[in-house]
Batch of 3 targets.
Target 1
Amino acid sequence: MSTQAPTHDLLPVASARDTAVLAWRMVRGRAAGLALTITSFLVVGLAGIIPVLMIGRVVDAVRDGSDASVIHRAVAVMVVSGILGGVFATLSMAALAHTVAPALAQLREDVLDRALHLETARIEAAGIGDIVSRVGDDVRHLTRALDEAIPLLINSLAAVVFTAGGLFALDWRLGLAGLGAIPCYVFALRWYLPRSAPFYARQRTADGERADALVTGVHGASTLRAFGREHDALERIDRRSQEAVDITVGVFRLYTRFGARMNSSEFVGLALVLSAGFLLVRDDAVTVGAATTAALFFHRLFNPIGALLFVFDSVQSSGAALARLAGVALIPRRPVSTQEPGPAPDLVLQGVHHAYEADREILSAIDLRIALGEHVAVVGSTGAGKTTLGSIAAGTIEPTAGTVRLGQLDLVAADEATVRRHVALVSQEVHVFAGSLRDNLVLARADADDELLWQALRRTGSEPWARALPEQLDTQVGDLGAPLSPAQAQQLALARVLLLDPQVVVLDEATAEAGSSGARELEQAALAAIAGRSAIVVAHRLAQAQSADRIVVMDRGRIVEQGTHEELVSSGGRYADLWTAWAS
């Protein structure tokens, strides 16, 4: 068994422009909250420079021997500004939370909703870890940025603007001296940004690959242990984890070197301001208090400028996360179809081809018509393309070429909700959702009352075991609830089909559990689900095909025979060989 990790066709990542457009769309409906947030942060920034100005006045008052009342007033102003700063800081955080948190929650729901409506093949190609990391790690990263980075960014911007304005208000020459540090900061940024952005993009991707390795290993744990190959999965998890760690360490090293350049910029700027202040005081151009205030102003800029530059670390990382979320949210949706199948619709597949890989076609030139109420069994050896044909007929996979129509309804072009109203797919792998038995049933029909639910359970042979549950319909099933056997889970899925009442049902080996106890009940449940409807049955056993109205025999992605059981057996072709081998 090879330990080479599969190559995934990851879901798209949005461009910077599309990400910005999506971010604006998220908050533009909350303009009042956004305005209150920005205003509050500005007040906090303004309140922050007032104490520094007052310190300069105190220095001049002491040096000039002024009345103590000057000092008292300065202290009072500092206290008031501190209180105002605290009040508006609290208000700014509350306003930010009420503005952005709901937008982020909506984005997460949009991403999850879009992911759930993607074609199964697209999800499988990307890997489940890609989706898990986006709706998990990426959203968590954005949430942390909203809690920490965004407030720090706005606070720092306000502090820099007001403090720089204060420097120029003291004396334009002191302001120019402070600006002398800008080239150093610019050089530090120009060195850092081009190097760090690719790191963060790779880090988000590596986190997704690590999640995929972990999820795949956990889901396949029993099979891997059965074949003694669990070390292969562990090795892949270790390798993906190490790759993620190596990227994180690389980011930290880069971040540390950026910090050294920041410290050098601060030294240059403070030295220029102190030198300018000394010369201006010597020439009596400014007071000692003004020079002191200028030095304190620039020193006060250390934290906000450092935060602004270092916040790029978080901004770029969260920007990469937002771009990955936007990439899923912005995947084009199919337009909602207003077309209906019409009366007595046939299901028609015409010229259908499909390939999961460009150079390997799974289905070739499939032409198939299924009349209303006709039951067609699809048989063939493993790899013949039966499951792919069933999935295309059910509208869960879009064919590479060809058309799939249910009467007047184009299943390829129609939106997911429209397709699901008319076509249902039940596969061998069904899921019992954590919740009550009632919750699992009303997924198919939200307005179903208890009478309809029991009727569906009765027709699929599920009523005896459902009545035996401690709280019957209100019994918790699935994870942490009453366990259902695989056959019971299949019966539950077939009961949902009856509640949905579609025109076409595709059963993809949905009665594979018929080899276990309860075989007859599961077979009867399947017959009840397809009674009076068009049906495609991907047959697990040829005995299932024997009672079908028509049998379609597939081989290497093509339909090689069609007919009734008796016709195909007597013709001595591919089906006859399969039947002879199975019967013996």
Target 2
Amino acid sequence: MKINKFAKLGTVVALSSLFLVACGSKSSSTASKQVLNWNESAELPTMDLSTATDVVSFDTLNNTNEGLYRLGKDSKIEPGIATKTQVSNNGKTYTFTLRKDSKWSNGQKVTAKDFVYSWQRTVNPKTASQYAYLFSGIENADDIMNGKKAVSTLGIKAEGNYKLVVTLDKKLPYFKLLMGFPVFFPQNEKAVKEYGSKYGTASKYMVYNGPFTLTKWTGSNLSWTLKKNNNYWDKKNVKLSAINYKVNKSTTTSYNLYQSGKLDETTLSAEQAKQLANSKELVIRKGASTFYLQYNQTKKEYQNANIRKAISLVIDRKQFVNKVLGDGSTVAKGLAASGLAKLNGKDFADAASVDSAVATNRAEAKKLWAKGLKELGVTSLDIQLLSDDTDKAKDSTTFLQSQIEENLSGAKVSVSNVPFKTRLARSVSGDFGIVVSGWGADFSDPISFLDLFTSDNSQNNGKWKNAEYDKLIEASKTTDAANTTKRWNDLVKAQKILLNDQGISPLYQQATATLVKSKVKGVIYNAAGVNYNFKDAYIAK
């Protein structure tokens, strides 16, 4: 999913999770003190799960709503709306029995029909969901998204109110993990139709069926509150009465609020992380997320591979992660994050790496730059670099700007640091030259990254295209889907094509240095998918 400079990431099987182990007496914590004050680094763009694409939205959706499953510590499947799951012998039909005590905040029962409505709404081309591609593999989903079949033919049906049947075109090894991701959550048809275009744009234009409800969010403000949902089926196990979010784009500001007791968590800058290296409250969040440069290849200059390669080769990534970030982030080996998936003990990130794609070689860069300029028939280039407006993002773009301008003759870099929501919108509309993008794996498989850069993927904002790459990704989903080795090799070859062509320039795999008050217990953090699960969190006495 799309992430910003401070983005936290979610659940994955292949990566170990950070779990603040519950200790002390939960019963001793009075309800009046069960309020968590949490720092956030970016505004909340939307609460419409069909159109959400970013980590802040999905985090909030995950804690205010619920799907068939919840994903807990180490991505363990936990009870959600489904109380029982039956899988056919061929692995292509799932039958879910749903609980009868789950309600929406408007008082209506959560039923199988809510899942059918939600999934059909998301894959409907009229909705223009950027995440609809995740439904590929569910019967008829691809044809529906391509306008060849009606949404009613999607492989999901309600048999009464409390039995849901999902039919797949092919066996999906990660299907159950997807069911814990908000894109696959139910939606209340009455609310969607009642609120119309306002649906999901403010807390009052939304209904909830999860541990918390969202309040005090206008759609553009920089603070909001999650309030315990007294209609939630498992409310007895929800200890927090409220979670107050405050957006702070400056780590200096958030750290001061943390020190004064107004925040229970804060993200740290590189310098702060160094100074607090021995603090007992320091927590390093390691994520299955990669930051990279996307080049707008609708523009002639970025269609030139020599220009793209030259820009990548002048960036000293070791200096970047150690001096600028200083938060535990590491140099990316490629697009797919390290630790995400392994086959026969071999990490995919190692198997699919291309050394030159993340190397620093300024002599070679200058040769390629000169060659690229000559091919374009120019002697200089104006480069528009887009990123977020947080302190860390500003430090990052300042570093990248200096690396390019100081090493490539005739390069002039203009930087635009804008709010997260604006950066997302400009990326989608193509209003950039080069954009610093971030992606966190939605589930523990390399396809979660590699799917992004197929020619027609809605997340491919730079519009890079390669026919062989597309064929390999397609084969991994179809002809080779059931053959683990062939599928793995398809994905390895695909990433190497992307990296050799410098379709994107990988920068770093993200980690985030944070401080969390020792009184905060039971918060679950995982590395890919949805970031945080606060259902079991509480404040110790």
Target 3
Amino acid sequence: MRSHTLHCAFAWTLALCLPVSCLAETVITRADLNIPLYSARDLVAPALAQAPPRQADSPPVEVPPVLSPQVETLQPLPPMAPIYTVPAAQIEKQGSQSLADVLRGMPGFAVNDVGPAADIHTGTYYRGSSINQSTFLLNGRPYGSNISTYHGATDLNTLPVESIEKVELSSGASSTLYGTEGFGGVVNVITKKGKGPPQFKAGAEWGNYSQANYQASFSGSTEQLSYRVGYQSFLTDNRYYVPEASINRGADGLLFNGDTYRNSYSGNFTFDIDPRNAISLDVTKILSRRGLLYFGFPGSCSPTLALQCDRLDHDGLNLGLGSRHQLGAGEDSVLTVNLGYNQDYFNTYGPTGVRFNRTGTLDTSLLSARVEHDWKSAPNLQLRYGLDATNNQLNSDTLSTLPNRAPFNEVENRAVFNGALFALASWSVAPSAALELGVRQTVNSRFNSYTNPSAGFRWALSPGVALRASWVLAQRNPGLDQLYVYDTVHGWLPNDQLVPETGSAYTAGFDVRFSDALEGKFTYFGSGLNNRLAVVTGQWQNVGAVATNGLEAAVRWQMAPQWSSFLNYTYTDARILTGPESGLQLGFVPYSVGQAGVGYDNGGWQANAQITYGSGSRRAFFNFDSTSTDFSPPWASLDLKARIPINPNLAITAYVENLLDIPYERVNRTYTPGLLYRIGLQTSF
């Protein structure tokens, strides 16, 4: 197993020296960005109000809203755990084509299933926790379903990126408010609303490997109504050369069955009943068709090795109806009500050889309801409390003509209800100190009742430095498919005796404002997880414990009005504590990930450069001439992005990814193609 001592030493060195000397020697800054990655308000305690004001020629900073759908509520007391925000302008500048693209530029994320040769088996991880151990929200309500296996996990590539207003990443007490699964964190995606006179915007991009991306939207507002509808279409065939050890390598040396096609539609309508009451409706519809890549398997779409030709169809629908009400005569009491419907249809199908075929269908629907009261009951006390409920229905149909799998063919209809009461209190116990206590009491129709508390603390040592800490007790329940559904693709058996994954997650760190233009967040994070879920000898099992510890640094530097930069680095030691893999790093979780870049923005002209680094991860299984301790090699990618205005309504965009044209193994035998390019046009009128 690769030693990670050097990674750890580097992480501590970075955390200690970055505020003063390392940054001064670095030209590695963010590709986007004259809009902050996160707000200065998040970085400091109330005592920082005494700090000098921001200079007039500096760009404004954005204050992330409370994680509530569609509408701004009361501004909370400073957070006890770091909050990161990526606004729409930044998403556009970095050239993101999916939500997964957005997340891989944020601190702590290792996104393996995005871009060419994206293998959905290898997943997305945040601070060492899988996508199923984090909570994903769309406008404050659940996005995704109770499905946990590879073909049912939240698909981050399908949400229409052109409709995203901002993405908020939080941890700590967010799990108290939005669910107990938050070993990792909570990701809330807020969609755009219409503003001002009617406006039509459109864009088109074309790139190598038959890549095409089309976007269009129409939006506007009247005195009481805002409206916005959007459309996005993306396709690529991903036919490029890959090494002999790669997955899905054909006889011609090219990747096969890696094509992707998706259409997405979105709409948002908000009606202001009066100045104190509003209702909103938003809808997202996706249609996705893609080939499936199987990490580590050789072969081709020949009759004898047709395993590699499986396809995945995914249709999704997310509807939300929300209302916001300011109670009383003041601004210190806000009631929000949200109703949601989420439907996901996954269908996996393909041949297993000359004569045999298989199909696996998972059709889920999720109904959700939430009522929350946000009340600043005193100048130094803020309360957030309420209730939420979800009902998840799974209909599955598995069919295989392979003789040894046919006996497991089945139709399942299962449902699970989950209801919770939650409360979070934040006190300013002193001018420079704040305390946060929360609790979530959950009733689950499958796993009975359980309690999850949380706590946090923040102390401003000076006008420019604040310490913070958070802790939360977490629980992630097995998915309905893991409990009841036979996986005909892999031959994995369900297990209705599974118990929840339980444990805790915690952070400690400090936020620093070195100047009005230079801010940083430095965090130690950790988690302990028991009853980890994994497949053993072809069946889902609770296999043991994992302890995760790591360091995270996020720095933003506005070097000049037109020049901005960023630097993110995360070190993650996700160590298996029990079982045959005891002492090993979790598979697919790299020890180190980092991003850095510099950006220029002036008068519509934009130029951005970004470096992305991954230390490599444990391949874990399905290896060639290697063992379970084998790691993929480290890699780095340099990306350039530019926008050139032709006139106020038309611009040319250009993106070059992996400028050095060095193919690398992203994770477990999935290889990038080397240099990628896109050329596009943007227009608005």
